[in-house]
Inverse folding.
């Protein structure tokens, strides 16, 4: 059975054309799928009955099932573990902010990037998510909470640029007027530094925010923490970021998770200022979330402050990420791992 949400709009047009339908039907159908998140053929009242019956024979509208749901004690963060049709599961997080509601979604089941401190990569990559499976995470949270999602961040499990084509189809629907019509400026794509993917994305000139998970200011340290650095070292990554800002006019966000005694020294901070000098960027410091089975601890607040001051003194724009939902494992692949562990 085909999930119609995996199709591009052109593919939906082609399909309907082959079924003898006029072109405007594609938009009608797309609205049911991507805007209203309709899960039943019976509701699609403006589509001919016989068309619906024919589509039903080889396509399905099945959404995701909620395997687990945890609400933070402040109530502003909800973490979901969603079940996929083949029995796999992915995590997504809903967050309520002053500026709107955001959805943090996964792009792969597991991940093959191997970052030292990340829980999502522990079991390796299981498979890519399809565009429809990414979209369904947003729809499922929106319908469960009953609030409109205004921002989407691709920071759940997986590496979006390792699943490039599916991610692009997903973004096309997400931003389309027949879909949720979320502006690219409200979308953040986070990568650990897949340089060819960054360059490919830059050429599309989408006004989305690119976040790059830097985590270390030199190759020696970054090779250990973010293994893709061995294939694409900083001397490739930084020029790729430069190219990205040049082609899109958008500033890059560098994510830097502070790990106690590993990458949080004053020397690291100074190296970082030199590394990104002249680049249109913002730095987001993240007190690292502890991960079961991974041997590191988070930098204490006083040292986070010292690190931040050094960057600011060099004229960089820096924030420390506000923590939401660490009481519900809402960080980085941890809920899925916990459930896998519980279920043996
Ligand atoms: N693969 C992409 C997106 C997923 S991870 C990427 O690497 O950017 C989203 C962010 O969470 C990344 O910046 C990642 O490095 C960070 N992260 C992973 N594990 C973490 C942990 N234990 N504590 C803090 N941040 C973590």
């Amino acid at each position: 059975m085909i999930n119609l949400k995996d199709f591009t709009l052109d593919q939906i047009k082609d399909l309907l054309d082959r079924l003898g339908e006029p072109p405007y039907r594609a938009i009608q159908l797309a609205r049911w799928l991507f805007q209203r998140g309709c899960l039943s053929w019976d509701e699609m009242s403006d589509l001919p009955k016989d068309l619906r019956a024919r589509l039903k024979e080889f396509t399905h509208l099945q959404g995701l099932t909620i395997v687990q749901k945890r609400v933070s004690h402040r109530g502003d963060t909800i973490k979901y573990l969603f079940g996929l049709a083949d029995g796999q599961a992915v995590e997504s997080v809903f967050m309520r902010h002053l500026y709107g509601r955001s959805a943090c979604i996964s792009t792969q089941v597991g991940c093959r990037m191997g970052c030292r401190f990340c829980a999502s990569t522990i079991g390796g990559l299981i498979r890519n998510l399809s565009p429809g499976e990414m979209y369904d995470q947003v729809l499922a949270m929106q319908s469960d909470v009953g609030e409109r999602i205004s921002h989407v961040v691709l920071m759940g499990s997986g590496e979006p640029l390792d699943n490039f084509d599916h991610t692009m189809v997903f973004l096309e629907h997400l931003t389309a007027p027949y879909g949720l019509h979320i502006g690219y400026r409200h979308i953040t794509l986070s990568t650990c530094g897949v340089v060819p993917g960054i360059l490919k994305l830059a050429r599309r000139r989408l006004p989305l925010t690119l976040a790059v998970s830097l985590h270390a200011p030199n190759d020696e340290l970054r090779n250990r923490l973010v293994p893709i650095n061995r294939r694409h070292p900083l001397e490739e990554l930084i020029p790729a970021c430069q190219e990205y800002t040049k082609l899109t006019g958008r500033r890059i966000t560098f994510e830097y998770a502070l790990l106690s005694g590993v990458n949080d020294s004053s020397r690291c901070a100074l190296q970082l200022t030199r590394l990104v000098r002249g680049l249109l960027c913002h730095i987001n410091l993240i007190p690292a979330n502890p991960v079961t089975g991974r041997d590191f601890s988070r930098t204490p607040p006083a040292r986070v402050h010292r690190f931040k001051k050094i960057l600011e003194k060099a004229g960089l724009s820096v924030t420390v990420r506000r923590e939401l939902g660490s009481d519900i494992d809402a960080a980085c692949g941890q809920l899925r791992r916990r459930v896998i562990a519980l279920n043996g």
About this structure: The chain has a mean pLDDT of 93.
